Amino acid sequence: MRAALLFLGFAAAGMAHAENCSIDIKGDDAMKFDKAEVTVSASCKKITINLAHTGKMPVAAMGHNVVITAADDMQAVATAGMSAGVAANYVPADDKRVIAHTSLVGGGASTSATFAGSLLKAGGNYEFFCSFPGHYALMKGKLVVQ
User: In degrees rounded to 5, what are phi and psi of residue 102?
Assistant: First the structure.
């Protein structure tokens, strides 16, 4: 019995320290993400963003993406994204403030993007948001790296 309890204790401790290297987010036609905060492990070599658009509206009317920046850069990147246009997924080209981003998708579609985990630092102040014009005011959240 003691051995079983000891094993369960070690197993639970191992699960508590397991790497979380993916960001899974859903967006809808009401301009909302299903999460206001996501957490990834600082030890991840690669991190994948998975976005599913659960709505029905087409990309031209209600497209969504996920953009990751330092919190202080979010507003400026979102504003610059409007000028970048739909062909650039409303993300400014070669902008060093953009850590990672997905492509735009419409209702019923999904997309993924993978980036180097080394671009994020534990304890850093990061945000994720949708850069489709006007969406970032509602569709944003905190990215925690631990």
Answer: -100, 175
Domain assignment present for residue 8? The answer is no
Q: Is residue 2 part of a domain?
A: no
Residue 79 falls inside a structural domain: yes
What is the radius of gyration, based on Cα positions, of the chain?
Answer: 17
Number of domains in the chain: 1
**pTM passes above 0.70:** yes
CA separation for the pair 69, 126 (Å, rounded): 6
Helix ranges, the chain (H): 2-16, 59-62, 74-84
**How are beta strands 37-40 and 140-145 bridged, if at all?**
parallel
What is the pLDDT at residue 7? 43
The pLDDT score that the predictor gives to residue 9 is: 46
Whole domain around residue 128: which residue ranges?
21-145
Query: What six digits make up the tokens of 61?
Result: 């009317």
